[in-house]
Structure formats: structure tokens, C-alpha cells
């Protein structure tokens, strides 16, 4: 038998224990960290301020401008065992949200969609207040340049009923009577508008109608015309309307001052008269002697003869006898003699001169002053205008005038 083989010593356990301890004490991040997220076509990762990617972290991507996420495809990656999960290309070119139209809206099947690749087709339906024009297409297409095709006006506004006419007024239609339009109302002069001044074509269930009914034009009345003192109105009426006039007249003995008529006018939808009414004023007449008696007026040189509203007779009274001054007459050729005509004229002049001298002497003899005396033959009432009688009392004046009249009337 040979000598027994020497035994191999066992490996040292201490280094293994140290290695195991180091593995156990190693931080988890250090064990499963991922590198920078992978590149995805037409997209960028949303990282913020992160610079490390530990185990199980998720990174989401955002499509570049002009690209849209394809519905149903994932847009994120996960770090697993120090590796990123697989991700397919999910960003693609697309038209923007379909054009918003005033007269139509997208059908519900397209309203929630945001991805419209080239060739996509969307459909519209008319908004309330519009009706479908079937001669035009209600579809839009995403073109190669990723722009939507130009829409036709395939929905037309509905029309409100004809508003009709306004009695004593006007209906103004600026453009038309289609949905959304407005009309206005006004009344003729002399009428007041009661109701809405305008109306709009608005929705009513599935149709359109006017928001307000036609107003009413009510006639405007003026107040009762003003009355005037000592006057009255020709043919008065119960009511007075625009441009209707009233005419005034005065009672007997009064004069109308101002315009003889006024008319009804309108201001701020209220009736009023065009101006103030006229006035009736009494006539200013002088005091006259009562009655209409025949009177005689004697004229004395140097005074102004007084006038009276009675029928008068002027008498030139001589001292004893009243005679007329003879007129000069012409003698036809071949008849009479020139001497006889001249003698007649001379005699008349002498007689007239004597009469005048006698009258003057009597007046100065009785009163010492000149004047005019008008006496009423029937009542012996006298009115003197010369200065010599101005300061006498009424009774004395009547007596003296009566005396003078009696002197003048002696035949």
C-alpha cells in the first residue's frame, strides 16, 4: 500500500461571504437602471428634469407638431430589468379638427375623433334654424396637404312668416326675414306706437317665428281747445286729432286779436296745440250824447268845430234874419247887362259882411271870448270847447250854452 494522499484544504469562506454581503447591500437602482428612453419617430419623451430611469419607471411621449397620436397605439415605454419595453410608431400626420361651420355641426360619430389622416371624410348636419340643401354635399375630406376641403353652404336659413303691414304705421325690413334677422316698427305722425319697437326671427321648436307680435298705432288726441273770454269756437268737436284745427270768433262789440285759428300737433307722442288762442278785446269808443237827435252847430271864427255822431245841420246865424249868401252868376252872351250883375254881387257881399259883423259883436258882447257851441235843439243840451267855458260847472255850462243857442237860433 502506498502512502495516503494529502487532503486539499477547503476554500476560504470569508471572501464569499463578503461578496454575498456586497450584493445584498447594493442599492436597487443600481441593479435595474435603464438608459435614456428609446427614440420614437415623430415624437419626443416627456422627461421634465429627470436624468435617471430606475426599474419599473414609465416614460410617455408627445407627438411632434403636425402629427397626431394614432388611436389605439401606445405612446409610452417601461423600464424592466434594465431594459425599455418595445413601442411601435404611434404618431402620424393628420388634419386638424374639422372646420367649425356656422350653419352645421359634425355628426356625433365624428365629434369625439381627433385623428384624421389623409383621405378621412367627415359629415355634418344642419344646425337648428337651418334647412338642408340637398343639392350640395354635407361632407368634408382631409386632403394630401392635410387641409380640409372647402365646405359648401349646404344648409340655408329658415324664413319667418311675412310680418304683414302695420295699420297707420310702417314695418322696416333692413335685409330679409330669415332666421336671425330683425325688423322694426314705426307709426305715422299723429299716432303713438304701443308694443314692441322691433322683432327678431328666432327658434321655436323645430321652426322659426317672430319674437314679438306686431304693435299697434294708436291715434293721438289733443286736449280740449282753450276757451277765450268774450269769444267762442266755430263748430266745436268732441275730439281733436293731428292737424285738426279750431277757429275762434268774438262776440258782437269785441275785436279778435291774434290768429283766428290754432291746430293740433304732436310732440314726444303727446298732443298739443300749435300756439295760444287769440283774444277778444272790447272796442274803445268815445262818450256821445244819448239818442240820435237832430242838432245844430254854430261855427265861430278862431275855433275848431266839434263833431258828434248825430246828423247835424250847420247854420250861419245873422243878428235878426237868416239869409244865404247869393252866388255869383254868369250872364249868357247877349242877355242882361254887366252893370246889373256887378250890382247884385256887391249887394250880396255887403249883406254877408254885415251879418258876420253882427254875429261877432253879439258873441263878444255876451262872453268876451271866441269859441264853438253845439246845441241840441230838442233837449237844449250844449257842449262848449272854447276856453271861456272850460272852468264852469256842468249846470252853469248847460245854462250858458242854452242862452247862446237861443241867441243863434233867433230868426
What can you see in these coordinates?
- By secondary structure, this protein is α+β, with helices and mostly antiparallel strands.
- The protein folds into 5 domains: 28-93, Complement Module, domain 1 (Ribbon), CATH 2.10.70; 104-157, Complement Module, domain 1; 169-219, Complement Module, domain 1 (Ribbon), CATH 2.10.70.10; 225-282, Complement Module, domain 1, CATH 2.10.70; 295-324 and 352-408, no CATH class.
- The protein has helices at 14-25, 28-32, 108-111, 338-366, 394-408; strands at 43-45, 58-63, 67-69, 76-80, 83-84, 91-93, 104-106, 121-126, 130-132, 139-141, 155-157, 169-172, 182-187, 191-194, 198-204, 207-210, 216-219, 221-222, 231-233, 240-241, 245-250, 254-257, 261-267, 270-273, 279-282, 295-298, 312-314, 373-376, 382-384.
- The strands form 10 sheets. The chain has a 4-stranded antiparallel beta sheet with strand order 1-2-4-5, with no helix packed on it.
- Strand 23 and strand 24 form a beta hairpin.
- The longest helix is centred in the last third of the chain and has 29 residues, at 338-366.
- It is rod-shaped and about 205 Å long.
Amino acid at each position: 500500500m502506498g502512502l495516503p494522499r494529502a487532503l486539499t484544504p477547503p476554500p476560504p469562506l470569508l471572501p464569499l461571504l463578503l461578496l454575498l454581503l456586497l450584493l445584498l447591500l447594493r442599492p436597487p437602482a443600481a441593479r435595474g437602471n435603464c438608459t435614456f428612453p428609446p427614440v420614437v419617430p415623430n415624437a419626443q419623451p416627456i422627461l421634465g428634469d429627470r436624468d435617471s430611469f430606475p426599474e419599473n419607471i414609465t416614460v410617455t411621449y408627445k407627438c411632434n407638431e403636425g402629427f397626431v397620436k394614432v388611436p389605439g397605439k401606445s405612446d409610452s415605454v417601461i423600464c424592466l430589468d434594465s431594459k425599455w419595453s418595445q413601442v411601435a410608431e404611434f404618431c402620424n400626420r393628420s388634419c386638424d379638427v374639422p372646420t367649425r361651420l356656422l350653419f352645421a355641426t359634425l355628426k356625433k360619430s365624428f365629434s369625439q375623433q381627433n385623428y384624421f389622416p389623409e383621405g378621412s371624410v367627415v359629415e355634418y348636419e344642419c344646425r337648428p334654424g337651418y334647412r338642408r340643401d340637398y343639392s350640395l354635399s354635407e361632407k368634408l375630406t382631409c386632403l394630401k396637404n392635410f387641409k380640409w376641403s372647402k365646405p359648401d353652404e349646404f344648409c340655408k336659413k329658415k324664413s319667418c312668416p311675412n310680418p304683414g303691414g302695420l295699420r297707420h304705421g310702417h314695418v322696416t325690413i333692413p335685409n330679409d326675414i330669415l332666421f336671425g334677422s330683425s325688423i322694426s316698427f314705426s307709426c305715422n305722425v299723429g299716432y303713438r306706437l304701443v308694443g314692441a319697437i322691433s322683432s327678431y326671427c328666432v327658434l321655436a321648436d323645430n321652426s322659426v317665428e317672430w319674437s314679438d307680435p306686431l304693435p299697434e298705432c294708436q291715434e293721438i288726441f289733443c286736449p280740449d281747445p282753450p276757451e277765450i273770454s268774450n269769444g267762442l269756437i266755430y263748430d266745436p268737436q268732441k275730439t281733436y286729432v293731428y292737424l285738426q284745427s279750431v277757429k275762434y270768433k268774438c262776440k258782437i262789440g269785441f275785436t279778435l286779436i291774434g290768429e283766428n285759428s290754432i291746430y293740433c300737433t304732436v310732440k314726444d307722442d303727446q298732443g298739443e296745440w300749435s300756439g295760444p288762442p287769440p283774444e277778444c278785446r272790447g272796442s274803445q269808443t268815445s262818450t256821445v250824447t244819448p239818442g240820435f237827435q237832430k242838432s245844430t252847430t254854430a261855427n265861430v271864427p278862431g275855433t275848431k268845430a266839434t263833431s258828434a255822431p248825430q246828423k247835424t245841420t250847420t247854420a250861419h246865424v245873422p243878428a235878426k234874419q237868416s239869409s244865404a249868401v247869393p252866388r255869383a252868376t254868369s250872364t249868357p252872351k247877349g242877355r242882361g247887362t254887366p252893370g246889373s250883375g256887378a250890382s247884385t254881387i256887391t249887394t250880396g257881399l255887403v249883406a254877408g259882411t254885415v251879418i258876420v259883423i253882427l254875429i261877432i259883436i253879439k258873441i263878444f258882447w255876451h262872453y268876451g271870448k271866441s269859441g264853438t257851441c253845439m246845441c241840441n235843439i230838442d233837449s237844449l243840451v250844449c257842449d262848449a270847447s272854447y276856453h271861456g267855458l272850460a272852468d264852469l260847472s256842468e249846470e252853469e255850462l248847460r245854462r250858458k250854452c242854452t242862452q247862446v243857442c237861443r241867441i243863434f237860433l233867433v230868426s
